[in-house]
Amino acid sequence: xxxxxxLFSLLTVQTLLGAFDNFWHHExxxxxxxxxxxxxxxxxHAAREAIYGVLFAAFAWLSFQGLWAVLIAALLVGEAFIxxxxxxxxxxxxxxxxxxxxxxxxLTVSYxxxxxxxxxxxxxxxxxTSSLALAYHGLWSxxxxxxxxxxxxxxxxNILAVRHLARLAETTEDAPATVPQAIGRSTVLVxxxxxxxxxxxxxxxxxxxxxxxxxxxxxxxxxxxLGRSVWVVEQLDDIPAETRIDAIVNLAGAxxxxxxxxxxxxxxxxxxxxxxxxxxxxxxxxxEHRPEVLxxxxxxxxxxxxxxxxxxxxIAAADPGRFQSDLCVAIxxxxxxxxxxxxxxxxxxxxxxxxxxxxxYPLQALAARLGLGAILGTGSQPMPWxxxxxxxxxxxxxxxxxxxxxPFNAVAPERVTQAAFTRALAASFxxxxxxxxxxxxxxxxxxxxxxxxxxxxxxxPLHAQASGYRYTHATLEGALASLAR
Length: 485
Known about the structure:
alpha/beta; Rossmann fold; 2 domains; seven-stranded parallel β-sheet; two-stranded antiparallel sheet; 13 strands; Epimerase_deHydtase
């Protein structure tokens, strides 16, 4: 059997839709490689990708008959069963958004059509004497060769992720279950506890011996990710009024990086934060024992855009009319309503958080490893940064330090420019940074969101240092060295 342009076209559609689903849903939104609960799903993905790698290579360069055609048919049928198992596993382990379900439906219909068109040719080829011959299809051969290489590499990446998650699971799956009745002294409620910073914070709080409650829209995934020692609630109304909660950490909110800041996206960014803070306020009001402290995350974007090299401490003013500043002001204003109820409020203003399992670092590190680290614009813009260990350390410090209230900058004491950061990141992998990205394409493509990349804030952690916090990673060289290991 030899592939036709129609079959190649349909297979291309299937390939591109599958790649989009993998990148958009599995990587950016679900972050499957960081979820302990996703081990089984990643195993299925790895098997399916390995099958596609073989099929793409075969379709690109071979004409097959007899038993070879039977083998190809078996791989196609096997992929269908793996996909069915994947659908069942997704329903068991996580909550799929409507768009992902719709895309899966389209992929299923497309794959069924592909099988329907392939079946007659495979049946006819299977009746022939077994043979395998080289078949060149021009650009199709090269496109599917690259596709084969890509999915095989992704299959290996998923296998490595499964092994890593299996090791993490050993530290959480044997922990004793926490039930609501056991919630008592030294209890911390974390909203956004399954995110990049939140999951790291929860793990540290559990290791400290604290009891932890986590608010999550996906309780099944949260329990699998965080372990059975964490009490997961889907809404704060599920927490009984008699529950003693000593501290609340609010990290909830849609990711600030991603889609451009259209009017609709801005509403999502604002509402995803204020709705949770409204729920937190109502919870504090009805609790019999009100929390001692609320730590609420905004960002150094509070300061907006500042010309010159003025050092910004916590007393610096906001920048009205600038979206990132207005968003942070709204967050902090909503959080500080809890002060009227007798709860101390500390407003965390983090810079760019550096860590392996999320944030900007993984993609930046990959580019640096490949020698593709780029200086953005002039590169002179300040880049306020902090290691993940220190942002979680500062949150825990804010919980336990009564003198720390109001805003505090969660940034490292060493201030660097974007160019210096890029060069240091490249050097941590033994590379050099020689690429430059002009500012105008980023401003044209990203609009106001490009400010996060091209206009920084020269922020100093005055309150954190004055309150006695000692940084684990105070210098950029040391922080990057710890991450590059």
